[in-house]
Amino acid sequence: MNRIVAVMKKQLKDTLKNMMTLVPFLLFPVIALIFTELVAKPSPDLPDTFFVSIFASMYTGYVPLVNMAAIISEEREKKSLRMLIMSNVKPFEYLIGVGGYVLLLCAAAGVVFGLIGAHSGTDLLRFVLVMVVGALASILLGSAVGVSSKNQGAAHALAMPFAIVAGFVPMIAMFNDTFARIANVLYTQQISIMVSDISASNAAFCRFAVIGANMLIFLMVFIFAYRKADLQD
Question: What residues contact residue 98 under an 8 Å CB cut-off, 6+ apart?
């Protein structure tokens, strides 16, 4: 446990040294706030939470995936990951530490999204929980991408197609029923549906089952990638 906390502290120090790494975590909530205040609220045809739902689901599919892949691939490229492992930090402890750090940032962003959408109390807690579950799925996929890439350039090229599909498919599905039915197998589509009506409990078990199935697939991909690419390289 102490080593996991140490990895999280190391990642925090790295972030403080390069504050630009926080930009992706802040960008989507800021855009959601602008569109909510300037477009949704003045419009009689749009619910106040319209853009919050869109950008929250885009965030969970895009930001944690890309950032997790970038962090791990950078550590591999600089050989600092190898030094950590040689210092008795086990690979799974490193991954939990970095993943936990990214997850905390995503949870904080979830609170901001929820407040922009005027959620409070139990609804705010549910909103953040849904976003955290979605972010965890993206973290697993991002970890697999990072482990498979020996440098940041390769990780970026590999992560972007996954991030674009995960982040933008729910937005397209909002405007096309046929596409929405196909997109239902994707975890971010289920996240989008739940954050759009956070008080509803209809088919919640089925939605989390789809997300869980996605996470299981991502975990299997990660294990396969990990076995093929030794993190000590």
Answer: 7, 8, 11, 68, 71, 72
